[in-house]
Amino acid sequence: MKIEEYLSTLPSNILSGEEIQIPPDSIREIFRFADLGENDVFYHLGCGEGTSLSIARQEFNVKSAVGIDNSKKMIDNAKKSIENDKISNVRLIEHDVLEADLSDASVILCWFMDPDIMESLMEKFEKLGDDVKIITIWAPLPGCLPQKVDFPYIMNKTPFVETDDLKKQLLAVFETECIGFVTAWEFAERYTKSIGRDNPENDRFLVIIQALTIWINAKNLGVACGEEMPESIRSYIAILKEYFGIEIEHLLK
Fold it and tell me: The domain 12-163: what is its CATH number?
């Protein structure tokens, strides 16, 4: 089956990231990357069970932390955790992030895989004041060049540096003049490690999928290293097809 058909068989909450929680160690990495500190008002859009809010207040001493999620279950769990730990200056809001007021935020963390959500959020982000940091995972904000990257963590800061050149955006994210197999594999491993999974035995499969996606996107945009397909890429495309029944080569333009 084609990769698109395979993805359609997965639960929607996995594809959307709705029930995938960022591990605590990755949250700390993100906060260090963002230089989060005592003068910040931190917002987490899609905060899940609120682990990031606890860490932001207890370990990074932010002025206040706000978590927004449209899941009552997640917000209720987050409230219990915050109350049990007696953490002050934390607000939890059960709400659609697209309708939330973000006007006092100085640092915003958001990780949504749905491009429509990100496009809609851009309209809100563009109305924010100067020097607000928007932290995303895996991809920068649509149509923007990032100001800082420690892949898979990406920072855009208001006012945004806009671009309609996908090549520039891709190379800015991967911080290289061209993308080869080694780069694609390394960055795929970083992403898989950062999001964490309950079943790490599947990590290699995820890395293969992500590495091939990175390289194929680079090839289609004309920023892959060299004209020929590397033998390693051919091998992994063949492995996916032979052992998993997943066909990905059709994505090459």
Answer: 3.40.50.150
